[in-house]
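HUMAN: Can I see a protein plus its fold?

ASSISTANT:
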Amino acid sequence: MRNEKTFTLMSPAPGFTSRVMARVAERERVQARRRAMIGSALLVVVAVIIVALIVWWLISWVAVLVVTPQVIVSVLDVCGTLVFWLGVALNAIWVVVRAVAENISVVSMAVLAATVCALTVLWLRVVVGPSFASQTIFVGGSR
């Protein structure tokens, strides 16, 4: 059995903890800088890849249009057809809105507006839940 009364307790040199904490802080700064550089490099690589893919896609479209110029005529024809049918649909909507607006009374309009408001409140109640107070955000983490 050892005699523990003869052991002396040693204390660290003055400034030891501050030097250790400075080293730890410097190591953390270096690691943070390294992580930031790696993240920046990955971001740049991904951005370059995305730009390269977009340029490749555009070049392929230009190549198709150069080889077959009748594609431009076909695309313009389809766009013209789409614009025509969009105009027809908007004209139909305009005719219906005018017919309803000219043939509805003020009381009917008020009833329709109240119905829209009631349906909106019902929709909010279903989406948000039964209590709007449960959606309150408190700053500071306590009520």
User: Anything to note?
Assistant: The two ends are 61 Å apart (CA to CA). Residues 16-67 form the longest helix (52 residues). The chain has three helices and no strands.
